[in-house]
Write a structure and sequence with these properties.
The chain contains 9 helices and 20 strands. The protein is α+β, with helices and mostly antiparallel strands. Bound molecules: flavin-adenine dinucleotide (FAD) and NADP nicotinamide-adenine-dinucleotide phosphate. Flavin-adenine dinucleotide binds next to strand 3, strand 8, strand 12 and strand 13.
C-alpha cells in the first residue's frame, strides 16, 4: 500500500480560484498502482472519487464529500522518431507548460501556441485545450485511460476522443475515464500558425522576421502574461465561459443591432461569437461584488480577490448569463467543471 490517504484536507492550494473548501479524503497518485489503489479504496469505503490535475479548470462550490486524487505521475518519453516527426508520450501528472517548454528545447514543434496554459497533461484532452488557433486534437495521437468502473485500461485514438470546441468524450462521460498518459505526434520541422490574434504583430514588433517555434512560444507567453491574471496572484480559472456558437443568420441579425459584434465564421456554417465582447458590452468588465469579480482587462475571466466562495463566483456567473440572454438573446455555457 503506497497511497497516502489523508482526512479533511483544504483544497485551497489545489484549485486556481483559491476557493477554500475541504475534501473529506485526499491523496496524490504517483503511479498507475496508486490510481488502482485509489479506485479500490473508494469502492471499499463507498466514497465517490474525484480526479484532479492542476485544479485550473474547476469551480468548487462546497466541501467535497469524496476521495480527491491529484494526478502526480511524471515522465516524458520519445516513443518513436524519424527525421520529421516524434511520437511523444507524457504521464498525466506532468505540468503542461513545462512539458511544452521541454519539447521546444529539444527542437520539437507543434505545441508552441499552447504555451503557458496551466494544468496537467492528463487534463488537456478533457476539454481539448486550445489557444491561438491550435487545439490538442491537432497534435494528438492517442491516450491510455483507466475505466473507473472496471479498472481496465483502454487506448483512445483521435476518433475515439470525439474532440470538439472545448469538448471531448471525457467531458460527457464525466468521471468514468481516468487519463493515465497521452501521446502526441509532434514535428521536427515547424509548421507555424501565426494568423490568430496578435501573434504575428507581436513578432513583428520584436523584429523577428523568420520565427522559430520557441520565438512563437515566447511571444504568446508575453501576450498572455500582459492580459491574463496569474492565478498565483489573483484566483481565476481562465475563460469562465465558452464562446457561443450560433447560426450564421442569428449572427447576421445581431450584427444589425450591434454593428461592432465580434464573430468568426466556422467551417460548419455557424458563427462563433466572442463571449468576452458580449460581457464587456453588457457592462460587466471590472465588476466586483465582495471578493468575486470580472477581471478588469479580460471580461471572460472571473476572479477571486481573496475570500470569494465557489457559491459567490457561481452567483456572479449566473447573473452574467441571465444578463447576456436578456441583452443579446444568447446563452453562455460555463467552461470550468463544477463540483
Ligand atoms: P483540473 O482543473 O484539475 O481538472 C479539470 C477537469 O479534468 C476536471 O473535471 C477533472 O476531474 C478532470 N481531470 C483532470 N485530470 C484528469 C485525468 N488525469 N483523468 C481524467 N480526468 C481528469 N484552457 C484552454 O483550453 N486554453 C487556454 O488558453 C487556457 N488558458 C488558461 C489560463 C488561465 C490563467 C487559467 C487559470 C486556465 C486556463 N485554461 C485554458 C483552463 C485550464 O488551464 C485547462 O483546461 C487545463 O487543461 C486544466 O488542467 P488541470 O490539470 O488544471 O485540470
Ligand atoms: P483574443 O485574442 O482577445 O480573442 C478573443 C476571442 O476571439 C477569443 O476567444 C478567440 O476565440 C476569438 N478569436 C480571435 N482571433 C480569432 C481568429 N482569427 N479566428 C477565430 N477566432 C478568433 O482572446 P484572448 O482571451 O486573449 O485569448 C487568446 C487565446 O487563448 C484564445 O484562443 C483563447 O481561447 C485562449 N485562452 C483560453 C482560456 C481558457 O481558459 N479557455 C484562457 C485564456 C486564453 P477562441 O477562444 O475560440 O480561440
Amino acid at each position: 500500500m503506497t497511497l497516502q490517504v489523508r482526512n479533511d484536507v483544504s483544497l485551497k492550494p489545489f484549485n486556481s480560484f483559491g476557493v477554500d473548501v475541504r475534501a473529506r479524503l485526499f491523496a496524490q497518485a504517483h503511479s498507475d498502482d496508486d490510481v488502482r489503489e485509489a479506485l479500490a479504496y473508494a469502492q471499499q469505503h463507498d466514497v465517490q472519487l474525484l480526479i484532479i490535475g492542476g485544479g485550473s479548470n474547476l469551480l468548487l462550490t462546497g466541501d467535497i464529500d469524496a476521495l480527491v486524487v491529484r494526478m502526480s505521475t511524471l515522465g516524458i518519453r520519445i516513443l518513436h522518431e524519424d527525421c520529421t516527426h516524434a511520437l511523444v508520450e507524457a504521464e498525466a501528472g506532468e505540468p503542461w507548460h513545462p512539458f511544452v517548454q521541454d519539447m521546444l528545447a529539444r527542437g520539437i514543434a507543434g505545441l508552441e501556441n499552447l504555451s503557458l496554459i496551466p494544468g496537467t497533461v492528463g487534463a488537456a484532452p478533457m476539454q481539448n485545450i486550445g489557444a491561438y488557433g491550435v487545439e490538442i486534437k491537432d497534435v494528438f495521437h492517442s491516450l491510455t485511460a483507466m475505466d473507473r468502473e472496471t479498472g481496465q485500461l483502454r487506448e483512445f485514438s483521435l476518433e475515439d476522443c470525439a474532440f470538439g470546441y472545448r469538448d471531448s468524450v471525457f467531458k460527457h462521460d464525466a468521471g468514468r475515464w481516468l487519463i493515465l498518459r497521452v501521446r502526441f505526434r509532434l514535428s521536427y520541422s515547424a509548421n507555424l500558425k501565426l494568423d490568430y490574434g496578435p501573434v504575428r504583430q507581436r513578432l513583428d514588433e520584436l523584429g523577428i522576421k523568420q520565427p522559430t517555434p520557441m520565438d512563437v512560444s515566447r511571444a504568446i507567453c508575453a501576450i498572455r502574461s500582459e492580459k491574463l491574471p496569474d492565478p498565483a496572484k489573483l484566483g481565476n480559472a481562465g475563460s469562465f465561459f465558452k464562446n457561443p456558437l450560433v447560426s450564421a443568420e442569428r449572427a447576421a441579425s445581431l450584427k444589425i443591432t450591434h454593428p461592432s459584434l465580434v464573430s468568426y465564421p466556422q467551417a460548419d456554417g455557424r458563427a462563433k461569437l466572442a463571449a468576452g465582447w458580449l460581457i464587456e458590452q453588457a457592462g460587466w468588465k471590472g465588476f466586483r461584488d465582495g471578493d468575486a469579480g470580472v477581471h478588469r482587462l479580460q471580461s471572460l475571466v472571473l476572479v477571486n480577490y481573496g475570500a470569494a466562495s465557489g457559491a459567490d463566483l457561481l452567483k456572479l456567473a449566473r447573473a452574467i448569463q441571465a444578463d447576456i440572454v436578456e441583452k443579446f438573446g444568447v446563452e453562455l455555457e460555463m467552461e470550468p467543471n463544477l463540483y
